Amino acid sequence: MKKLLFLPIVIFSLLISCTDDASEDNFIPPTEEAPIDENNEDNDDDDNGDNETPTACNITTKDGLLILEGESFELQGKWGVVADEKASGGKYIEYTGANNYNSPNLTHEISVKFYVPAKAGYRVKWFMRQPPEEASGDLANDVWIYFPGDLGRAYVNQQPVTLEHYEKFVSRSAKDGEFAFGGALDLHNPKSSSWMTVDFPEAGEYTLNICARSKHFQLDKIILSTGLDNDVVAETSKDLTETSTCD
Ligand SMILES: [Ca+2]
Protein backbone atom coordinates (compact mmCIF):
# COMPACT_ATOMS: atom_id res chain seq x y z
CA MET A 1 0.00 0.00 0.00
CA LYS A 2 2.80 2.37 0.85
CA LYS A 3 4.45 1.68 -2.54
CA LEU A 4 1.25 2.57 -4.44
CA LEU A 5 1.00 5.87 -2.64
CA PHE A 6 4.60 6.63 -3.52
CA LEU A 7 4.22 5.92 -7.27
CA PRO A 8 2.57 9.26 -8.29
CA ILE A 9 5.37 11.13 -6.57
CA VAL A 10 7.97 9.21 -8.57
CA ILE A 11 6.18 9.95 -11.86
CA PHE A 12 5.85 13.58 -10.94
CA SER A 13 9.54 13.77 -10.11
CA LEU A 14 10.42 12.25 -13.48
CA LEU A 15 8.31 14.83 -15.29
CA ILE A 16 10.03 17.66 -13.47
CA SER A 17 13.39 16.14 -14.32
CA CYS A 18 12.47 15.94 -18.06
CA THR A 19 11.30 19.52 -17.96
CA ASP A 20 14.65 20.68 -16.68
CA ASP A 21 16.48 18.91 -19.49
CA ALA A 22 14.21 20.01 -22.32
CA SER A 23 15.30 23.59 -22.94
CA GLU A 24 15.89 26.93 -21.37
CA ASP A 25 13.71 29.81 -22.41
CA ASN A 26 11.08 28.45 -24.67
CA PHE A 27 10.06 25.13 -23.20
CA ILE A 28 6.99 23.73 -24.91
CA PRO A 29 4.77 21.53 -22.75
CA PRO A 30 4.80 18.00 -24.21
CA THR A 31 1.02 17.94 -24.55
CA GLU A 32 1.09 20.77 -27.13
CA GLU A 33 2.02 20.72 -30.81
CA ALA A 34 5.54 21.78 -31.60
CA PRO A 35 5.55 25.33 -33.01
CA ILE A 36 6.04 24.94 -36.75
CA ASP A 37 4.11 28.10 -37.46
CA GLU A 38 6.16 29.94 -40.12
CA ASN A 39 4.87 33.26 -38.89
CA ASN A 40 5.97 32.75 -35.34
CA GLU A 41 8.52 35.52 -34.96
CA ASP A 42 9.16 34.65 -31.35
CA ASN A 43 10.69 31.33 -32.21
CA ASP A 44 13.99 32.67 -33.43
CA ASP A 45 16.11 31.71 -30.47
CA ASP A 46 15.72 27.97 -30.48
CA ASP A 47 18.47 25.91 -31.95
CA ASN A 48 16.96 22.47 -31.63
CA GLY A 49 17.02 22.11 -35.40
CA ASP A 50 13.93 20.09 -36.23
CA ASN A 51 11.13 22.56 -36.47
CA GLU A 52 12.68 25.97 -36.83
CA THR A 53 12.19 28.33 -39.72
CA PRO A 54 14.74 31.10 -40.17
CA THR A 55 13.16 34.34 -39.06
CA ALA A 56 15.93 36.85 -39.57
CA CYS A 57 18.93 36.91 -41.88
CA ASN A 58 21.90 39.23 -41.60
CA ILE A 59 24.62 40.09 -44.06
CA THR A 60 27.85 39.42 -42.21
CA THR A 61 31.60 38.90 -42.38
CA LYS A 62 33.27 35.85 -43.93
CA ASP A 63 37.04 35.37 -44.13
CA GLY A 64 37.64 39.03 -43.29
CA LEU A 65 35.25 40.36 -45.96
CA LEU A 66 31.88 41.95 -45.36
CA ILE A 67 30.33 42.43 -48.79
CA LEU A 68 27.22 44.55 -49.30
CA GLU A 69 25.66 44.20 -52.74
CA GLY A 70 24.22 47.45 -54.05
CA GLU A 71 20.98 45.65 -54.76
CA SER A 72 20.65 44.83 -51.03
CA PHE A 73 20.24 48.50 -50.17
CA GLU A 74 16.79 49.78 -49.40
CA LEU A 75 16.41 52.02 -52.43
CA GLN A 76 14.79 55.46 -52.28
CA GLY A 77 14.43 58.32 -54.72
CA LYS A 78 16.03 57.95 -58.13
CA TRP A 79 18.02 54.79 -57.42
CA GLY A 80 17.14 51.70 -59.45
CA VAL A 81 18.32 48.11 -59.82
CA VAL A 82 19.77 47.04 -63.18
CA ALA A 83 20.44 43.45 -64.26
CA ASP A 84 23.90 42.90 -65.76
CA GLU A 85 25.91 39.71 -66.00
CA LYS A 86 29.09 41.69 -65.37
CA ALA A 87 27.81 42.69 -61.94
CA SER A 88 28.32 40.71 -58.78
CA GLY A 89 25.08 38.93 -57.97
CA GLY A 90 23.92 39.75 -61.52
CA LYS A 91 22.76 43.24 -60.52
CA TYR A 92 23.96 46.72 -59.72
CA ILE A 93 22.22 49.94 -58.71
CA GLU A 94 22.30 53.21 -60.63
CA TYR A 95 21.31 56.73 -59.67
CA THR A 96 19.40 58.56 -62.41
CA GLY A 97 18.42 61.78 -60.62
CA ALA A 98 20.10 65.17 -60.72
CA ASN A 99 23.61 65.83 -59.42
CA ASN A 100 23.86 66.83 -55.74
CA TYR A 101 27.43 68.12 -55.63
CA ASN A 102 27.14 70.58 -52.75
CA SER A 103 25.25 68.58 -50.16
CA PRO A 104 23.26 65.35 -49.86
CA ASN A 105 19.62 65.39 -50.95
CA LEU A 106 18.06 62.93 -48.51
CA THR A 107 15.33 62.09 -51.02
CA HIS A 108 17.96 59.80 -52.52
CA GLU A 109 19.38 58.41 -49.27
CA ILE A 110 19.65 54.63 -49.23
CA SER A 111 20.77 52.32 -46.46
CA VAL A 112 21.65 48.73 -45.67
CA LYS A 113 21.94 46.91 -42.36
CA PHE A 114 24.52 44.24 -41.61
CA TYR A 115 25.98 42.28 -38.71
CA VAL A 116 29.55 42.57 -37.45
CA PRO A 117 30.58 39.49 -35.40
CA ALA A 118 33.23 41.20 -33.24
CA LYS A 119 34.84 44.53 -32.42
CA ALA A 120 37.07 45.41 -35.37
CA GLY A 121 38.23 48.08 -37.77
CA TYR A 122 37.35 47.65 -41.46
CA ARG A 123 38.62 49.35 -44.61
CA VAL A 124 35.90 50.67 -46.95
CA LYS A 125 36.11 49.98 -50.69
CA TRP A 126 33.68 49.28 -53.51
CA PHE A 127 33.19 47.99 -57.02
CA MET A 128 31.69 50.78 -59.12
CA ARG A 129 31.34 51.72 -62.78
CA GLN A 130 30.85 54.86 -64.79
CA PRO A 131 28.66 54.69 -67.91
CA PRO A 132 30.75 54.25 -71.12
CA GLU A 133 30.57 57.92 -72.12
CA GLU A 134 31.94 58.99 -68.74
CA ALA A 135 34.45 56.19 -68.09
CA SER A 136 37.84 57.36 -66.79
CA GLY A 137 36.51 60.89 -66.47
CA ASP A 138 35.35 62.88 -63.49
CA LEU A 139 31.58 62.47 -63.90
CA ALA A 140 29.21 59.80 -62.56
CA ASN A 141 31.86 58.53 -60.18
CA ASP A 142 30.94 59.42 -56.60
CA VAL A 143 28.42 59.28 -53.75
CA TRP A 144 27.92 60.72 -50.27
CA ILE A 145 28.73 58.13 -47.61
CA TYR A 146 28.12 57.99 -43.85
CA PHE A 147 28.14 55.36 -41.08
CA PRO A 148 25.54 56.38 -38.42
CA GLY A 149 27.05 56.65 -34.95
CA ASP A 150 30.07 58.50 -36.38
CA LEU A 151 31.93 55.22 -36.88
CA GLY A 152 33.76 56.25 -40.07
CA ARG A 153 37.38 57.40 -39.96
CA ALA A 154 39.63 59.35 -42.32
CA TYR A 155 43.36 60.01 -41.98
CA VAL A 156 44.56 63.57 -42.35
CA ASN A 157 48.26 64.26 -41.76
CA GLN A 158 48.54 60.69 -40.41
CA GLN A 159 45.97 61.45 -37.75
CA PRO A 160 42.61 59.66 -37.53
CA VAL A 161 39.61 61.94 -38.05
CA THR A 162 36.11 60.95 -36.95
CA LEU A 163 33.57 61.36 -39.74
CA GLU A 164 30.50 62.98 -38.21
CA HIS A 165 28.44 63.56 -41.34
CA TYR A 166 28.24 62.65 -45.02
CA GLU A 167 31.47 62.88 -46.99
CA LYS A 168 32.24 62.45 -50.67
CA PHE A 169 33.49 58.99 -51.68
CA VAL A 170 34.92 58.64 -55.16
CA SER A 171 36.83 56.52 -57.69
CA ARG A 172 36.94 55.81 -61.43
CA SER A 173 36.40 52.86 -63.71
CA ALA A 174 38.20 52.11 -66.97
CA LYS A 175 36.66 51.96 -70.45
CA ASP A 176 36.57 48.15 -70.43
CA GLY A 177 33.00 47.96 -69.12
CA GLU A 178 34.09 46.19 -65.94
CA PHE A 179 33.19 47.26 -62.43
CA ALA A 180 36.34 48.67 -60.85
CA PHE A 181 37.71 48.16 -57.34
CA GLY A 182 38.55 51.35 -55.49
CA GLY A 183 37.09 54.13 -53.41
CA ALA A 184 38.54 56.97 -51.35
CA LEU A 185 37.31 59.95 -49.39
CA ASP A 186 37.56 63.38 -50.97
CA LEU A 187 37.45 65.68 -47.95
CA HIS A 188 37.00 69.41 -48.30
CA ASN A 189 37.54 70.81 -44.81
CA PRO A 190 40.49 70.62 -44.75
CA LYS A 191 41.02 69.55 -48.36
CA SER A 192 42.41 66.04 -48.26
CA SER A 193 42.16 62.65 -49.89
CA SER A 194 42.06 59.65 -47.60
CA TRP A 195 41.26 56.02 -47.43
CA MET A 196 38.17 55.34 -45.37
CA THR A 197 37.94 52.98 -42.44
CA VAL A 198 35.15 52.22 -40.02
CA ASP A 199 35.52 51.19 -36.37
CA PHE A 200 32.86 48.86 -34.99
CA PRO A 201 33.10 49.01 -31.17
CA GLU A 202 31.45 45.66 -30.51
CA ALA A 203 29.59 42.81 -32.19
CA GLY A 204 26.19 43.90 -33.41
CA GLU A 205 24.01 45.26 -36.18
CA TYR A 206 25.16 48.40 -37.97
CA THR A 207 23.97 50.57 -40.85
CA LEU A 208 25.66 52.11 -43.87
CA ASN A 209 24.02 55.11 -45.50
CA ILE A 210 24.75 56.29 -49.00
CA CYS A 211 23.23 59.35 -50.61
CA ALA A 212 23.34 60.11 -54.33
CA ARG A 213 25.87 62.66 -55.55
CA SER A 214 26.41 62.24 -59.28
CA LYS A 215 24.00 61.22 -62.00
CA HIS A 216 24.44 57.79 -63.65
CA PHE A 217 26.84 56.52 -61.00
CA GLN A 218 26.71 52.70 -60.84
CA LEU A 219 27.36 50.75 -57.62
CA ASP A 220 27.92 47.00 -57.78
CA LYS A 221 28.95 46.29 -54.18
CA ILE A 222 30.61 47.75 -51.09
CA ILE A 223 33.60 45.81 -49.71
CA LEU A 224 34.41 46.14 -46.01
CA SER A 225 37.55 44.22 -45.06
CA THR A 226 39.38 43.55 -41.84
CA GLY A 227 42.90 42.19 -41.36
CA LEU A 228 43.56 41.85 -45.09
CA ASP A 229 46.03 43.60 -47.37
CA ASN A 230 44.29 45.89 -49.84
CA ASP A 231 45.74 44.05 -52.87
CA VAL A 232 44.40 40.77 -51.51
CA VAL A 233 40.97 42.32 -51.00
CA ALA A 234 40.94 43.70 -54.56
CA GLU A 235 41.76 40.28 -55.98
CA THR A 236 39.63 38.02 -53.81
CA SER A 237 36.48 40.10 -53.50
CA LYS A 238 35.78 40.53 -57.22
CA ASP A 239 34.15 37.13 -57.64
CA LEU A 240 32.53 36.97 -54.22
CA THR A 241 29.10 38.09 -53.18
CA GLU A 242 27.67 38.86 -49.78
CA THR A 243 27.37 36.29 -47.01
CA SER A 244 24.26 35.96 -44.88
CA THR A 245 23.53 34.07 -41.71
CA CYS A 246 20.01 33.31 -40.57
CA ASP A 247 18.86 32.86 -36.98
CA1 LIG B 1 25.81 43.69 -57.22
Brief characterization of the structure:
The chain has 247 residues and is mainly beta.
Q: Total number of helical segments? A: 2
Query: Which ions, cofactors or small ligands are bound in this entry?
Result: calcium ion
Domain unit count: 2
| CATH class category name of the largest domain | Mainly Beta
Binned strand content:
35-45%
What is the CATH topology classification name of the largest domain? Jelly Rolls
* Order of H and E elements: HEEEEEEEEEEEEEEEEHE
CATH superfamily of the largest domain: Galactose-binding domain-like
* End-to-end CA span: 53 Å
Task: Give a short account of the largest sheet.
Answer: 9 strands, antiparallel
Helix content range: 10-25%
Secondary structure tally: strands:
17
From the spread of the alpha carbons, the general shape counts as: globular
What is the second-level CATH architecture of the largest domain?
Answer: Sandwich
Descriptive overview:
The strands form three sheets. Strands 2, 3, 4, 6, 8, 9, 11, 14 and 16 form a nine-stranded antiparallel beta sheet that branches. A six-stranded antiparallel beta sheet has the order 5-15-7-10-12-13, with no helix packed on it. The protein is mainly beta and 247 residues long. A hairpin with a 2-residue loop joins strand 12 and strand 13. It is globular and about 50 Å long. Mean pLDDT is 85; it is low at 1-5, 7-25 and 27-49. It contains two helices and 17 strands. 29% of the residues are buried. It has two domains: 2-43, no CATH class; 57-246, Jelly Rolls (Sandwich), CATH 2.60.120. Calcium ion is lined by residues 69-71, 87-89, 91-92, 220-221.
